[in-house]
Amino acid sequence: MRIRISIFIKLLLFIIPLVCVPVALVGYLSIQASEERVNRLVRQEQMMQVEAAAQKINAVFNQCRVDLETISASPVLEDFNLARLFRLQAEAEFNRENLEKLFREILERTPQYARIRFLDRRGRETIDVGRGETGRSRADNDEEPYFLEATVMGPRGVHLSGPVQDAPGGDWLVHSSKPFFTGWREMAGVVVIDLDFDKISQIVRAIHVGEEGYSFLVDRHGTVLAHPTYAPYALTADSFEDPALRRMIGDMVAGRTGWDNYSFQSQSKVAAYAPIPLMDWSLAVTIPSEEFGREAGAIRGKVLQVVALTLLAAILGVAALSYSLLRPVRRLVGATQRMAAGDLEQEIPVRSRDELGDLTRSFNLMVGNLARIQQELVRSEKLVSLGRLSAGVAHEIRNPLNAMKGAMVHLQQRWSHEPLIRQYTQLVSEEIDRLNRVVTDFLYFAKQSPPKLEEADLNEAVLGVQRLLAERAAESGVVFVNELSPSLPKARLDIQQIEQVLLNLTLNALEAMDKGGRIRVRTGLARGRGPGWLELVISDDGPGIGPRDLPNVLDPFFTTKSDGTGLGLPLSLGIVEGHGGSLNLESRPGQGTRAIVTLPLAGPEGR
Fold first, then answer.
1. Cross-strand pairs, 165
2. By C-alpha distance, which of 41, 49, 19, 44 is closest to 299?
3. For residue 141, what pLDDT band results from cuts at 50, 70 and 90?
4. Distance CA 81, CA 75 (A)
5. How far apart are alpha carbons 262 and 268 in whole angstroms?
6. CA 267 to chain CA centroid, nearest Å
């Protein structure tokens, strides 16, 4: 009888020797090592911690610079400044709320920030969002020296101050400020982020090496800014009597990285130090020299513990590894069984970036493609059935409509002196004309002719449609914003059919923006589809399409307009697909709609 060995047992038998044997060997060599090696290990630990902490502090200030750039480049800030300049109270209040929301989001994700403010060109606070009390304002900038520093910097300059006490006995802050320039290159104010220096000090105080080790922070002048015992600026470069300590402080101020020995308060110490480049600060981690001997003895007692814990961790790690490897496989098996039963509305979450994650992503892509193909088949069947039905119904309706139209004309001519008859015959004639237009759309939908391909310029077609709709766009307060590629090659297109697509999509965008806005049109080579494909993108600033309506907008006769037939987009889709391309719509409520048309350069037969 063959014994079945699980994957967990196989991994355990393979990994435990690979982990435990090297650990035991390293432990034995560590016990035999000299105190010098232990010293080197401790120094390496010091350097790792000081560099990690320095990088963390530097990252805080770098993030601050990025946030200042983001805020000062925000179009909302530009709109707020313009609204205040032209005294548009409602628009200014709306933009103020958006800016305060942005400031709060930045404060929530960055715990080191205390406040974010916007000061006008005279130093008065116009927007103030903080974690504590807000809304403080000053009549002038004499109390804000960092404001003066920021105003003399260029548009890309960022000023970072040293730690400043907000008020006597108050919090210590670091003011970071950047001037805000308008589109006319005029300085209109300063964006200020106040960093809580206590949070920076906490990073420094959180470093622990040995039992009595601690860290401290100095600025570019050698003044101690953060120390577990002394307040900021309590110690300066002149406070140190030991020449070795003075030398080390000089190396720190010069921005060097390294180790050094010194004496402070009659105690011999060893320190590792690393710079914080953005602030010209330097961080040092120090430990008494006598602790090195204790560290060497502690290593001897901990080797066996490390081996035992490593063995336990290896067992737990193998268990977790086998579980994490087998669980995605089980999910895939269950998903394939549900898919085989006909359930295509599923997606397995991707929780890893390894081969199993790639397999899961490929499975999700396959299921999505199957669902899309199924939807396209259903839609194609609808189109064929509705096309046949539309052709038959349209022919049956058109003849009675013509007869009714003739009768109404006869009545209008015969009884033109009767106001009531003239009124009702006019109403019936208008409705007959509307029904005739709907029947014409039905016939066009049912008898879409294949495209007559010829060399054509897509950019000229876009401009031609815009010229046709220019007067209507001006009446609606809509502006066309074009990003047409000047190097766009000509393609084999039925230009009349493509112009019909452009007309339908542009009219939809115009009708969606009854209060004005911008229609953006971009042409170019399609991204992500390789050579030989054109891409046309038409986007608007309208209210967008709801998530419940978006899947149905390409279905025939589906419309949200009171006077629409619901055939404009299906006709456009048929024309684009007749050219061998694709039409996709992207929309979110309140964020407008994007129509993306992709066409082959060589026509459908040359794809």
1. 172
2. 41
3. very low
4. 10
5. 6
6. 53
Q: Is the dihedral of CA 201, 203, 209, 210 positive or negative?
A: positive
Give 180's DSSP letter: E
- Residue 568's closest CA among 547, 583, 579, 581? 583
Contacts of 325 (CB under 8 A, 6+ apart): 7, 356
Give helix 355-414 / helix 291-340 axis angle, nearest 10°: 50
- Separation of alpha carbons 310 and 37, rounded Å: 23
- The full length of the chain comes to 607
CA–CA distance, 300 with 28 (Å, rounded to integer)? 9
| Predicted confidence (pLDDT) per residue in 392-449, tens digit | 666 567 667 777 777 777 777 777 777 777 777 777 777 777 777 666 666 565 556 6
Q: Are 593 and 545 contacting, i.e. CB atoms less than 8 angstroms apart?
A: yes
Amino acid making up residue 78: E
**108-122, 366-380, 445-459: least confident range:** 366-380
With b meaning 16 or more CB within 10 Å and e meaning fewer, what string describes 138-167? eeebeebebbebbbeeeeeebbbbbbbebe
Phi (first) and psi of residue 592, to 5 degrees: 80, -175
pLDDT confidence of residue 312: 78
* Per-residue pLDDT band at 295 (split at 50, 70, 90): low
Q: Which two tokens stand for residue 209?
A: 């090496």
For residues 549 and 569, the answer to whether their CB atoms sit within 8 Å is no
Residue 184: strand, helix, or coil:
coil
The enclosing H or E element of 574 equals helix 568-578
Task: For residue 163, give the amino acid letter.
Answer: P
Would the pTM count as exceeding 0.70? no
H or E segment at 536? strand 533-539
Strands 517-525 and 478-483: parallel
Which residues have a Cβ under 8 Å from the Cβ of 15 and sit 6 or more positions away? 314, 317, 318
The predicted pLDDT at position 136 comes to 45
Separation CA 194–CA 197 (nearest Å): 9
Element (H, E) at 268: strand 267-276
CA distance 291 to 273: 18
pLDDT tens digits for 312-321?
Answer: 777 777 677 7
Which tokens sit at 437?
Answer: 């237009």
237-254 pLDDT tens trace: 888 888 888 889 899 989
Residue range 509-522: mean pLDDT, rounded: 86
